């Protein structure tokens, strides 16, 4: 087989066979196929697309390019959740203990990554003593006993995706539905998921700027999952403004605790119940979405969700008393209020720019080597659709720097107050098959 023939076939709009796709992925991973041929094929896929069968084949070829996490010793259907990214997205911190408290096994492998705030592991590490350096045996044991554990990234998962994603990044081929969908799904499957729930974000803080694009990506991923034997559901949710109130590591842990207590922000709570209900159905702890949602609401109401969070923290070396006394979390030295420049209705809070402002305070990493400050970040006191009076606080800035004029200016530049406006739709769509 010759790579040039595969490129020409896709260039001319024909479907590739399983053998051709596997030849490309294996050859590229091993370094036998050069970057220029791989980028040419990626561009051909960008313009000519792939059919459902090609997408599923590409996904599994990438899964098979590296290690596979075997979760078969863990009892039950392992359901993983993936979000396509956003600002102040505290959902994982709430969802993991919540669904575990109604019996869905949460066997999560998590990395650190780059972004506006730390990843889920960084956030959890703002709890004194909490760590994810546990053995695979311990991990299995904890999930079997208590239905929840988080372990740091191990193994060499989907090396084909790593290499191809880096290449796409510099060749104008990131924004292709078959390539994005196979990239995301291959990582979830290699991490051992039996079933997958996807939160595809739309809006200015997201990768997919329109609802139509987000829906096309969600449909593509659901279709791949179901073809390769991993039941998959998705929702399309808003990321035009940050989710919930908190952006920052310890601040988000505090927000997660409030939400598990039933006292969280309305939008975060609604998103968690929607995604959680899908996880509970896929995890076979309820038959219908409505029944699943009731189970979750009860677990919040009667304190089981919060108890599960405490068990999870202490199982992994952390101090569970933070749950009852959040002042034990890292605290920033200074708090500043951002005063509203006029009276009116908040009509825009640009998610991505607020994320950058949090990173300027030290909450996130720009490069892998950066240290993050777990205590700093932002807490919104107003969201889109809220009324505000001139001089009232739009948000609170938690900082360890005294000089924050640049951050304040960025925030003011990215919050709009008008005469009238409404809150955005939070959940545009649920895709269950
Ligand atoms: N995120 C991924 O993991 N892969 C893509 O291709 C795009 C976004
Ligand atoms: Ca939040």
UniProtKB/TrEMBL annotation:
Its cofactor is K(+). The keyword Transferase applies. InterPro entries: Glycosyl_Trfase_fam3, Glycosyl_Trfase_fam3_N_dom, Glycosyl_Trfase_fam3_N_dom_sf, Nuc_phospho_transferase, PYNP-like_C_sf, PYNP_C, Pyrmidine_PPas_bac/euk, Pyrmidine_PPase_CS. PROSITE patterns: THYMID_PHOSPHORYLASE. Its EC number is 2.4.2.2. Pfam families: Glycos_trans_3N, Glycos_transf_3, PYNP_C. One of its GO terms (molecular function) is thymidine phosphorylase activity. It is an enzyme of class 2 (transferase). It catalyses: 2'-deoxyuridine + phosphate = 2-deoxy-alpha-D-ribose 1-phosphate + uracil; thymidine + phosphate = 2-deoxy-alpha-D-ribose 1-phosphate + thymine; uridine + phosphate = alpha-D-ribose 1-phosphate + uracil. SMART domains: PYNP_C. Keywords: Glycosyltransferase, Metal-binding, Potassium, Transferase. Residues 345-418 form the Pyrimidine nucleoside phosphorylase C-terminal domain. Belongs to the thymidine/pyrimidine-nucleoside phosphorylase family. Catalyzes phosphorolysis of the pyrimidine nucleosides uridine, thymidine and 2'-deoxyuridine with the formation of the corresponding pyrimidine base and ribose-1-phosphate. NCBIfam families: PRK05820.1, PRK06078.1, Y_phosphoryl. Homodimer. This is Pyrimidine-nucleoside phosphorylase.
